[in-house]
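To assess whether ligand presence alters the predicted conformation, the chain was also submitted together with 2-deoxy-2-amino glucitol-6-phosphate. Input:
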Amino acid sequence: MCGIVAYVGRKNSVPIMLEGLKRLEYRGYDSSGLALFDEDNNVKIYKKEGKLIELEKFVSNTNKDLFSTIGISHTRWATHGVVNEANAHPISDPDGTMALVHNGIIENYKDLKQNLLNKGYKFKTDTDTEVLVFLVHYYYQVEKCLTKAVQLALKVVEGTYGIAIIHRDFPGQIISAKKGSTLILAIGDNEFFITSDINATIKHTKRVIYLEDGDMVKINHEGYEIFNSDNLSINPEISEIDWDISAIDKGDFKHYMLKEIFEQPISVGNAFRGRLADELNTVRLGGLSASYSDLRNVKRIQIIGCGTSWHAALTGKYMIESLARIPVEVEYASEYRYRNPIVPDDTLVFVISQSGETADTLAALKEARAKGAKVFGITNVVGSTIARETDGGVYIHAGSEIGVASTKAFTSQVTVLALLAILLGRMRHMSPNDGLIYLEELKLIPEKIEMILAQNEQIREISKSIANCTNALYLGRGIDYPVALEGALKLKEISYIHAEGYPAAEMKHGPIALIDENMPVIALASKDFLYDKLVSNLQEVIARKGRIFAVANEGDELIATIANEVIYIPETLPSLRPLLNVIPLQLIAYHVADLKQLDVDQPRNLAKSVTVE
Ligand code: AGP
């Protein structure tokens, strides 16, 4: 949700910010803008509706000579106010002396706006952010101190913010502050950056400070100073990033999503590498080791997430219940946080989030904690808010995921949940031999994913007959059910085809009414004890002229006589099946969207990390 890049240094900030915004476009892409100082130290704002390319064109066509060694910039995902140029950030104060960019939501903006209207302020945008700008303006008139004005304004706003401000009276300075929205200070060689994500600055420096809630930072050409919420000057530790720009390059792939799908043999391997304790036929999860006694005594687990992460959580439920026989509840974070959840003693809570920034998941974490639960995180982004707020956890090590549709993060999350299930299983009834079987099979998964990816061209051909549909049904039984949900979500998100995932046997309780010759049914026909029942469900589809696209195991000849198309995948242990079954579904969604010439990496209305409610 919205991305911020700000720069102070010796170079021209304009190309640096535009390139940085490009790397943050996944966070929001409905409009963008930047603000700088002209040679007379006036604040100048340039903004455009539409994707970043519009701002880039505007700068390169009509404003080639823009130069400022200090600037702030923003890419927007609209919350308050429609998508137009006025509502794009930076937002200015009434005198045009200040520009502010904001990521987050001012929840009490209505009341504050009314107060400001009463004071005579005239609003030019429909954003909540303008309220914050006017508040700073108001307090600056009263206090004559910009720092104080920002602090006072931030005291009265409720909600979340990551902000960066420039002001005509301080032409060498950026003020930045955060609460609830990620903000990072990146420290280069005589240059400093503020960013919502290190992707935007990794090209320039690997040294970063993750700002904490309540922190305010002042940067100028000489250096930076950070104040905590008590207004004390602090000196937080500088972290060193251990990856470089090549990790976020698209390489030869047409889209990030395709690149990320093809990275899965490696990313899944990275999720389990160094965590298999072969000598004991179990798993070692360093981030949870201090809590092994809690894991041994746990009576119930709750796993909380949103979207694809929720699907991974549901997959985890099947795995943990099957391998460790511990009851698992899977919760939508957005529901959990408000429904006064029951968290009995001996419950462990896991929050799962690729970005580690999802507002609902973060709030659910806090709610679980308020109920006295120990909360662990399963996250991808190192140093993210959720990773830092939890009592411990496991990184999935999927590497940067840029495509808005999550792919490799899902399989890495599922891999970590499989590890957790094995660990919990071995702490209970799972024999060393069964532990060994799981570890050995896990090691084969990357190779098996490669085998599925090798069928990419065939899957593209199959996708052609789905691309012109308006609806699709995804069916699976048992642990294939969450995968069906995930396949349907992928198709919806990027191809705008309405799709539903169902437990196959539920079809006859309603969705069967939708089936006709235009309805593709994507069926996960895994060879297990429910296979015959699944085949019966598919016969019901055929009887109603539905078209079946099956994902089945190699050697399954029966399915070829039933389905219109079959994608064959290698067999694996039931609990690890989602790691393979999901791959063809990701590829189908990708190819359908690409065949429809849609913007695969930046689908409409979505943003990669949803940092608002
Ligand atoms: C996945 O394709 C989606 N874009 C979305 O559902 C996502 O999984 C969800 O917003 C949760 O994000 P998180 O994992 O970063 O918390």
